[in-house]
């Protein structure tokens, strides 16, 4: 941080420019109640950090007077990396501060709990950085989306059965990654990507209907994570006592009824093929969707009465089910104790391409947006930025 530049003012000015670009010195000074020389000092600091550009010269000034300069946040001022780790492949993306994807890499590789695998993750990050051609010193950090529950205080996974990651932390996953790194719960990351796309939503509950079921709850003002990150584990909501065995070891959880494999079983292993068969009216697929939506409706009803928020269906199923929600809407409305129009609050996701890697990286971008000073460039190397 430069001399005389405070963190709170850095954040306030950067945020103002972000929301009002192109923003002039006068506008910044008036909005934040600070002097023009102070604004200039911060703009100099931002320019040195490579965080802003001179945008268009505004022609709204009086004729013959000085034309005010509008400042904009630099798209490629900083970069974030998101990594999605699953049982059978990794996905790695590079974003700029606007959340635009600059590089995107998918690599088939079976997860294994060993040093070779963690070394592979480091190589994947290096590869995606090289593909993107970005300056390394502008990398804010890496967020790795993993299935499992992460204790926020210790950063250790204390529930990890989808892949064998119980007891691991960023010290393991990030061992060969030379940037600031952290773990993110995969369902939270995917929900965050969806929420990011809809800045007008005040809150949303995201249900990830993938090979396992997860969830996350998002609020514009603050995220709700619960104790030790235990919130929205909707996959283990009990809907059929003495029902099917869940991977968690208990019976009757929602997961074995609503994970995407249930539908894929009627599509030769493919969720996409299942929906094709459903739409062509194949009776086995129609029956499977009827059972599936009956179980899912229970969970959606429960979530709705608890959170009263919008509900978004994600994961493999959410990415495909948009045109087929009619029976689900009807069943959810039938369960409601109030007059209900679930079309107004229940929808399929719109972020269907690699939402976990994307949402993980967006977490890093969001952290930067809320506090740009946390990611000041290394002092000795800022010259010539
Ligand atoms: Zn369970």
UniProtKB/TrEMBL annotation:
Taxonomically, which superkingdom?
Bacteria
Instruction: Cite a single Pfam family from the UniProt record.
Output: ROK
PANTHER family noted in UniProt: BIFUNCTIONAL UDP-N-ACETYLGLUCOSAMINE 2-EPIMERASE_N-ACETYLMANNOSAMINE KINASE, ROK (REPRESSOR, ORF, KINASE) FAMILY
Its family remark reads: Belongs to the ROK (NagC/XylR) family.
Protein name (record) = ROK family transcriptional regulator
